[in-house]
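Let's practice the habit of predicting before peeking. Look at the sequence and jot down your guess about where helices and strands might fall. Then scroll down.
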Amino acid sequence: MKLLELIDFFRGGGSFKEFCLLQSLNEGSEVIEIFMEIPLNIDNKLRYFEIEQTGGRTEYTDNGIKYYNLFDFYYFLDAIEEAHNHQNRFLSNEELAKLLYNYAINDA
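Done guessing? Here is the structure:
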């Protein structure tokens, strides 16, 4: 799944609980983090890891593939919620993906 697909899922009405079930993630984890394959590119695949597995690292390697921590699911879900407010509701999913990606690689 790519960042745009993740946004599509949640803006299309998908729930965190449903997402965790589909991705075999522990919904009860302290934090689930959203990682992207390195080298970073907005169209790269994402992976989701519980913080208990990554130890909160910025970079994490799984099965020989290196990933970079973009942000955690709390931040992502807040961004999705903000995208529904009056000022941001006209943002397309593509525009939101670019904003989130730029935040993650430049400001986070």
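How did you do? The mean pLDDT is 94.
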